[in-house]
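Our preliminary data section would be incomplete without showing what the modeling component actually yields. Below, a chain of 90 amino acids is followed by its predicted structure, encoded as tokens that our downstream tools consume directly.
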Amino acid sequence: MKIMSLDVGLKRIGVAYTPNNSVVVPLNAIIRKNRNQASQEVTNLLQEWDIEKLIVGIPFTNENTSNRIKHFVKLINFNGNIEFVDESFS
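Predicted structure:
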């Protein structure tokens, strides 16, 4: 299963990819100019790499940041499985 993971920040979005669940390859970060541009770049990557599952880090202990990240993810055009992983205290 082809999986991509995101670490969504206010200035940049960290991106990593694994084609086989064993080797994870970091990709270039997406520099955010605005959320529409950033979500379009994420959508393009998902399509380019033929991603089946998207994993997004989210701090469950910070409600404001969690809501911001969830809103951003809704802007991404992706029909695959999306999983949020708690990154609190990491």
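The chain has two helices and five strands. The chain has a mean pLDDT of 95. Preliminary results of this kind motivate Aim 1 of the renewal.
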